[in-house]
Amino acid sequence: MNAPINPNALPYAVPRSVLPGAAWPAIPNDLASRLLALQLQFGQSQWWPPEVIQARQFEQLRQVLAHAQRTVPFYGSRLSALDLTHAPLDRENWSRIPILSRKDVQLNRDALRSRSIPAEHGAVREVTTSGSTGRPVSILSTELPVMLWQAIALREHLWHRRDLTAKLAVIRVHPSLNAEPPDGVAMPTWGPPTDLVFRTGPAAMLNGSCAVGDMAAWLCKQDPDYLLTTATRALALARHFRRTGLSLPRLRQVRTYGEAMSADLREQCRETWRVPVVDMYSSREIGYMALQCPLHEHYHVQSENILLEILDEQGNACRDGEIGRVVISTLHNFATPLIRYEIGDYAESGGSCPCGRGLPVIRRILGRVRNMMRMPDGSTRWPDFMLAETRNDLPAAQMQIVQTAPDVLELRAVPARHFSAKDRAKLLDYMRQWAGPQFHVSVRIVDDIPRGPGGKFEEFMSLLDPQT
Amino acid sequence: MKPADTSAPPYLSALPYAPPRSALPGIVWPAVPDDAASRMLALQFQLEHSQWWPPEVIEARQFEQLRLVLEHSIRTVPFYGSRLAAAGFNPSIPIDREVWARIPILTRREVQLNASALRSSHPPPRHGAISDVTTSGSTGRAITVPVTELHGLFWQAITLREHLWHQRDLGGKLASIRSRGTGTAQYPDGLVAAGWGPSTDLIYRTGPCAMLNHACSMAEKADWLMRQDPDYLLTSATNALELARHFRRTGLRLATLREVRTYGEMLPGDLRDTCLDVWGVKVVDMYSSEEIGYMALQCPQNEHYHVQAENVLLEIVDDHGHPCREDEIGRVIVSTLHNFAMPLIRYEIGDYAEAGGSCSCGRGLPVLKRILGRVRNALRIADGGRRWPDFGLAKKYRDLPAVQLQVVQTALDALELRVVPGEGFSATDEARLLGYFRDWAGPQFRISLRVVEEIPRGPGGKFEEFMTQFGDET
What we know:
heterodimer, A: alpha/beta, 11 helices, B: alpha/beta, GMP Synthetase, Chain A, domain 3, four-stranded mixed beta sheet, globular, disordered N terminus
């Protein structure tokens, strides 16, 4: 409470009111009220003791299991054999449910879909993702998980007490925006969900598949307060700013998502820009899994959205300090319920947190890492191939691209099923199209794609000498 | 937001562990409530945060909101037009303390005399339907204040906050003893409702609520309570005190009672001790009025009160109109933040209160140490000053037989004890009582005792443990 107070920063900022004359406390519109009603619950549940949080999760998961058993063919026999819906759930009977692998999800796309999605959960849409391990999956989702997504995005701002009137710069792949350098796109607000509830400052967007030098030049022009981008890009940018002596005088925080963080990212950002990094752990098919603690560099599981287990090789829960497989169950997706789904990341389990929150702690997330790709002309860029739209019909279960020489790219593919010459030609076509004429491309069929050191899967791997 | 008190066992049906009711099938946690409940929880979310803001942030938000109230008033409320302009209010300039203090105080008498000139000619339609609240007030002069649904929404939101602050177990049973229309909820059965009431039921699943009409004897109230065996008792402060004394005398017990909730009267000095002693429970008091809504709630961790700054600006001013400092007692002046049908701006409600400093709980909401009732509830002393007496009866008076007692100051130097004697009240008891009060008051007062059949309640049905009945303040 000793720091000077900025009335525009959370938790002092006031929601937008729809009633004339009632500015404070505000009367927000229905959509914003729903998000704030969730936010009030989050504000309470984050401080609950772990056993209360878990009791509430199992109450909700019991609803999910009953629905899945009744309406999702894949789960019908799997769950009815276990007979879990007649007694309250606990850890012991929960752990009898078999793990759902990513491959299960790939192979049972249709059987995993509910035959009776509650209409009240909103419109159904398809979500496709490469995930963290290069194996694309496709699931159905309703508007309800989107609402949870938005509510947790707001929680993240609250936790980190952001100044909502500040300027946000976003560097990512924006498929629907023409946000190319040198200008990117200027937006009047931070966008949903923040501007659904609060008045915000402007945002600037840049398509993140350009060269690092272009990103840096754009950032200098924007001079933002917050930078939101992937961990790999943030690291490349910090190094670039350091090398060139450029600066971002107003920058207060680097926000990262979507990739495991390299060990020195925090240090690089501190040294280059004197700002902290705030990371989050999410995926398109699940939503938010963990947010960085407001007071520490570790993460809190978003237990209001998912049950997250960290399991050892034998399937037992990891203890404090142990690293294991991340297994996720979604609490609110009744279109394709994911129950004990092995997402493909590894994480280190944490104990309790001195901040007082009862939400479980993850010390580190060992997920996807991505190397920057060096172009034949010597510039570097972020390889965005996993986000390309055409991925869905590719016949591979898992893929990795390896840069073996300045002008050579090799696609390594683990086949999903029997692999024909036609499938191979399709992959080669895709690679050629993606890489452009400056690269020689090839396809190699492999049985397995090994993880790198520390269990990290590299969907783009560079065998060139490290950048200097 | 701060951690909940986790020292209490985590009853899953108690706040802050109880989830709201969900409107979506298959979803129990976190709940997705319906639109009306979401609106209420969106307000609650704001209240959760603003309570921890530093005082200067709270005051800045209040003045932002009051600027809208003044702007509306100068435009649509005839009474205020010239008054605010004369005070130098300019809608285009932010309000600060100095500007604010120039606005004249609005007396209860002015509200009575200007009933129609105080009504807004254009209350915003979106603030909802308007209903009239008529209140006798503690001084007996009735006033009528039109209020909007928005005003009601804040009433409900603060009702919920009060449950949250005191971490109530919503699955518990609530018993409420209060005055009701003749024939309603009468002894011996009273009336049992399925939920605690609209503010709570809108959001949560609650336990039953048993209601009893206040118009019956203490023995009958006790009998009814025994049969109801409630977790919470909601009643007026003096009623709670008399009940506790009755239970002590008869040796009856309320096995599951967890808390006594009081409202509407100044708290007798010995109520907290007596309830703790007899039932082993704490008293939680609140300060509200129908025309204003909630003005202050008891702190979750202390016995003093926090002003409900999201609903009212509450000032405590001395006889010269200057703000009281910590520990000083002065007149309560309130301004409503959201009633655009009849904005009450610097309204002197008629109560006195003692200003507090900051609170150990960390909340930035201003502190009221005590709420002292009316000026006629103050003891006048020879130098012209006033004191709000605390007789400390809980300890001294516990072995006396049943009496109802009122102390009346009949002259600057005279106190009269009015006593309704119970069974077995003897001459010795009378002498002890007189002796105690002579001791308490000191030699400058003459003490007399008068046996009466009944002690009439004051305006609004409120019992007054102490009152003055001389001079011009009766």
